Amino acid sequence: MSDLQIRQIQEEEYPILEDFLYNAIFLPPDAEPVPREIIYKPEIFVYVKDFGDKDDYGVVAEQDGQIIGAAWTRIIPSYGHVDNETPELAISVLPNFRGKGIGSEMMQSLFDLLRERGYKRTSLSVQKDNPAVRFYERLGYEITGERLDHANHEDFLMMKCL
User: Fold this and answer.
1) CA nearest 136: which of 15, 24, 19?
2) pLDDT score for 2
């Protein structure tokens, strides 16, 4: 990757999290794309709404001046919520840049940032049939439960000790 930089997200970049939230929505291979407006449903928008609170942390992957990925955590009442000390993770890499190790680099950088801030673990929610389950397991996440999401998809609740 030429000129790839992983760095903390800057306040003026917070609005791009909406684009990455949309790109993070898992669609099975045969599924039609969902309308972008879906991210404004309250149960989804909570992942980015008013980002910048004291427990909000994020990193971006930038290449040749373009932000191509984002990973962020928040303590919010959402699908992967465990307790008020465990930030929930969201990650997204633009489709043309997936499968190149960028997600792993962002995650490691975010884990380091969370450790520095004193967090002991992080959680996430992922659909059972999403291939990302294996990605999260490689990064040290373990399945700790199962739930149904807003669309009645079966999700794994996953946790990683930092």
Assistant:
1) 24
2) 66
